[in-house]
Amino acid sequence: MFGGNMRIFEVMRETKETNIYLKINIDGTGKYKIDTGIPFFDHLLASFAKHGCFDLIVKARGDLEIDDHHTVEDVGICLGLALNQIEKRNIFRFGWAIIPMDDARATVAIDLSGRSYCVGNYEPKREFVGDLATENINHFFESVASYGMLNIHYEVIGKNEHHKAEALFKAFGVALDLATKIDERKGVISTKGEVKL
Asked: Does residue 189 fall inside a structural domain?
């Protein structure tokens, strides 16, 4: 799961609200061990890992007796911090995906640009799916973009909130897999000669 000469990044974050451990192998095969205390969020992260072919471990303990906001936010922060460690040389840099799931369809485009920006239109019609407050899905992606220093744009349509959310996380995984592909022809893909602020 984490052997060999691979791009593996590890983040630990502990606050008064959460205790998060995250490890991701960008060059993995889609294996995962995820326990955030929020079963539907675990399912979404598993979908991201499986369809992006990332090996992912997430262990999170948060103040769920209050609500799920801090846990979802801080997992997003940790994933962003991990992704920000990716070497921005000899990779595709851009990634995109259009993923259907029955009635739902999600479109995601990302740029590992060294600049943080998130634009999304996921508009849930239900307050919860399982134990996950659907409003926190947008906040998760905002946190990933902010701490990962990447652009994330996404659009979601559909009727079923489970399908909409799952299609979105699958599309994010597929798009990120493309953006992180090694291509030694690329060098640094920027007319500035570097990918950072």
From this structure: no
